Amino acid sequence: MGTRAREILGIDPAQLIEELNKAFADEWLAYYQYWVGARVVTGPMRGAVEAELNQHAADELRHAEILARRIIQLGGEPLLSPDQWSSATNCGYESPTDPDVSVILEQNVKGERCAIDTYSRLLKLVEAKDPVTYGMVLSILQDEIEHEDDLESLLRDLETARKK
Ligand SMILES: [Fe+2]
Ligand SMILES: [Fe+2]
Asked: Which domain holds residue 48?
């Protein structure tokens, strides 16, 4: 990070890097949960659900990239080993041991709600202190809000389909 960029930062970069790394761990775990879920999912509307899970997986991976870039820009280092993900994560990981479509969607909705909480909290942390991170977190939060909505509508469609 350049000199002036450091001067306008109203927050301790080490604290910010730690928070961003926790979100970075969340994104990798969310990526994998979606990725593997898309492969094992079974039940009605499987095709539509698989496509949505794959789309979300791609978004979470993109979020991980955005976070890594900002961590490096702040002079930090993204977590270098997957071993660190489970201790750094805010939102954890739920193995899709039951491949039923509703169970997988419910697990992922839970993850998205945690992501929304995490990024809302991060947004408040950097508000008026780091406009660059603020803009970045806001764009990720918008995606997570869309993800929750996508999954909730799939669950509603599924319920309707099962009643028929
Ligand atoms: Fe994400
Ligand atoms: Fe998401």
From this structure: 12-92+99-163
